[in-house]
Amino acid sequence: ENGMTSRQIKSIRSYLGLTRQPLAGIVGVGQSLVSHWENGLRTPMGPAKILLQKLHENPSVFGISTKFKKSV
User: Fold this and answer.
1) How confident is the prediction for the chain on average, in pLDDT?
2) Which of 7, 36, 58, 60 lies in disulfide reach of 42, CB 3.0 to 4.6 Å?
3) Is 44 exposed, middle or buried (0-12, 13-18, 19+ CB in 10 A)?
4) With contact defined as beta carbons under 8 Å apart, do 37 and 43 qualify?
5) pTM to 2 decimals?
6) How far apart are CA 72 and CA 69, in angstroms?
């Protein structure tokens, strides 16, 4: 199965209104690894990949609301 693309990861983070640090905390990795993912240097694997997919599908499970995001 193909990994998530850097564009998909950036898109998920943007959609959730998160910076790299909180996303890293939720997924359980370092901020530098999120940066590597977003720059296409690394690909999420194993539990991190699954968590990113679940986060994208149902952010409310992680306590994240997208309903009240401020429009910029």
Assistant:
1) 87
2) 36
3) buried
4) yes
5) 0.83
6) 9
Residue by residue, DSSP assigns 9-50 as: HHHHHHHHT--HHHHHHHHTS-HHHHHHHHTTSS---HHHHH
d(CA 72, CA 57): 23
Residue-wise pLDDT tens digits, 12-30: 999 889 999 999 999 999 9
CA 31 and chain centroid, separation: 11
Residue the block writes with tokens 């992680």: 62
SS3 call for 56:
helix
**Tokens representing 34?**
């999120």
